[in-house]
Amino acid sequence: MYDSSCIFCQIAAREISSEILHETDSVVGFRDSNPKAPTHILLIPKDHIVSVSDLGDGQGALLADIVQAATHLAKTEGIDVSGWRLVANVGPDAGQSVFHLHFHLLGGRQMAWPPG
Ligand code: 5GP
Ligand code: ZN
Description:
It is built from three helices and five strands, in the order αβββαβαβ. The protein has 116 residues and is an alpha+beta fold. A hairpin with a 3-residue loop joins strand 1 and strand 2. The protein starts with 6 loop residues before the first helix and ends in a 9-residue tail after the last strand.
């Protein structure tokens, strides 16, 4: 639920300041503090879940909430037409550095594929 040692739990609880752009019953969206694109927003569940690979049965609705929040924020950021990317890093090879499930919403510039 809430892990007092987790930065993102603390951001969701507003114990650490961040630029929160969007909040629902289940999801919080805030700007990444080290942006890799003109729009770089992190979407997290309010509950402490370590990564996408820890999602259990019955948490499909949470994923749908995250995607819906991303679609909403892409519109408010003005990147819905130009395009955007939604990425979740899982584990060391992907470079996950914060162990609270998050999706990166990136946009506002041309992006390469595949990512490095
Ligand atoms: P990961 O590498 O785990 O996929 O992504 C973690 C992201 O969290 C990074 O892009 C990093 O810049 C961001 N981040 C780490 N600490 C904070 C913080 O305290 N506040 C905000 N807004 N973003 C953070
Ligand atoms: Zn957490």
